[in-house]
């Protein structure tokens, strides 16, 4: 059987050729190809993990934002409530102050009026007094000249007298 | 393989017009699966290849065109520097002055000719170098990008060898053996596929030649045993069995060293040769039954066989690489010898 007898020439040529092929392909094909494939796989892995990390960062940021927003809203509500309270308080205070001031001014006016009234009364009294004295003087003077005339004078004078 | 054969067959019938000689189917089949000193292109048209001989008297190089073998068995004799040579059944033989084959002297002549199989092997190698050279250039040019064209076709095969052959069988140490496994895989694959092409650049039976499978197996044998660690050798020479079993176990383990690559050699050789013989036999049925109607039966069967052979071409390349990786993996495995 020829076909199961290995030919020495073909064995040697196969050995030599295969070893050369192995060396050439290892240097020029397998190393660059496997290197590039490994590199790419590493890159893809890295990119995927980076994307995952970015996603996590994203959701973390979103959560943080939500929390901040919620907090801000609560703070706003508190501030608004405080402001409302303050406003009410200020308005109430102002009302009270205005009322007090009004009352005080009315009181002042009344005191002033009374004062003026008292001054005017005193003035009237003085005038009445001086007029009375004047009248009395003139009467007295006339009386001392002539009784009749004195009478006339008194009546004249009385006619003249007008309460100012 | 196919196209060359029928033409050859017809021409043979024309040659034997007078005598109406029967074509010797068995001889033709074996001629086609065997090696040759010329590449047949079509019919009688063939490329002669150089004959390189190491004789006991010195080197001898001449073209195989000088020793053409005619159909009638009359040999053309070439008078070399040291001896006279002639072809007999595609083998270079030394002939004496009377033109008779001198078997004694022939045994002293070592034939290192560039035969059909050597030429086809170089063709396959050239294809591999060109294809993978351009592929690796593409990786440099398109660094970090997605594979394209040739890359996207071959990259899965390369990754298949890495992820499904090397890593499961060898483990973390696989990187060192990747070039060998990839080269074995693609060498066998391209030559299997070239052997399936029925016309000129193919029609060879390289991976179905025992010399080639022997060489590949010896390479696997050497690599396996040179990478064997202490666990591997301990498993062979100091297995965990009672001492009185050693005289039986150690020879068995030593036979195991040889039998594993031997299985590789026989499996590849037998599978590819068997495929070629079946296809050639189916075609030969036309000549055996001497009717063209037989072609209606033969041709569908041949097409069917070729489809199977296409599968076998991939399968055998895979199995050879797989088992080579398995053997290497067993030799470099350092977990525990108890795992076997």
Automatic annotation (TrEMBL), chain A:
Q: Does the keyword Methyltransferase apply?
A: no
Instruction: Cite the entry's keywords alphabetically.
Output: ATP synthesis, Cell membrane, CF(0), Coiled coil, Hydrogen ion transport, Ion transport, Membrane, Transmembrane, Transmembrane helix, Transport
Q: Which Pfam families match?
A: ATP-synt_B
Q: What is its main location?
A: membrane
Q: Its membrane topology, per UniProt?
A: Single-pass membrane protein
GO cellular component terms, semicolon-separated: endomembrane system; plasma membrane; proton-transporting ATP synthase complex
> Which positions, given as ranges, span the membrane?
6-25
**Coiled-coil ranges (or none):** 37-103
Gene Ontology MF terms: proton-transporting ATP synthase activity, rotational mechanism; proton-transporting ATPase activity, rotational mechanism
Localization, UniProt: Cell membrane; Endomembrane system
**Keyword Transmembrane appears in the UniProt entry:** yes
Q: Would you identify the family this protein belongs to, as annotated?
A: Belongs to the ATPase B chain family.
Subunit structure as annotated in this protein's UniProt entry: F-type ATPases have 2 components, F(1) - the catalytic core - and F(0) - the membrane proton channel. F(1) has five subunits: alpha(3), beta(3), gamma(1), delta(1), epsilon(1). F(0) has three main subunits: a(1), b(2) and c(10-14). The alpha and beta chains form an alternating ring which encloses part of the gamma chain. F(1) is attached to F(0) by a central stalk formed by the gamma and epsilon chains, while a peripheral stalk is formed by the delta and b chains. F-type ATPases have 2 components, F(1) - the catalytic core - and F(0) - the membrane proton channel. F(1) has five subunits: alpha(3), beta(3), gamma(1), delta(1), epsilon(1). F(0) has four main subunits: a(1), b(2) and c(10-14). The alpha and beta chains form an alternating ring which encloses part of the gamma chain. F(1) is attached to F(0) by a central stalk formed by the gamma and epsilon chains, while a peripheral stalk is formed by the delta and b chains.
Q: Which NCBIfam families match?
A: ATP_synt_b (TIGR01144)
Q: Which PANTHER family match?
A: ATP SYNTHASE SUBUNIT B, ATP SYNTHASE SUBUNIT B', CHLOROPLASTIC
What does this protein do, in the record's words?
Answer: F(1)F(0) ATP synthase produces ATP from ADP in the presence of a proton or sodium gradient. F-type ATPases consist of two structural domains, F(1) containing the extramembraneous catalytic core and F(0) containing the membrane proton channel, linked together by a central stalk and a peripheral stalk. During catalysis, ATP synthesis in the catalytic domain of F(1) is coupled via a rotary mechanism of the central stalk subunits to proton translocation. Component of the F(0) channel, it forms part of the peripheral stalk, linking F(1) to F(0). The b'-subunit is a diverged and duplicated form of b found in plants and photosynthetic bacteria.
Q: What's the protein here called?
A: ATP synthase subunit b
Naturally occurring in which organism (per UniProt):
Mucilaginibacter mali
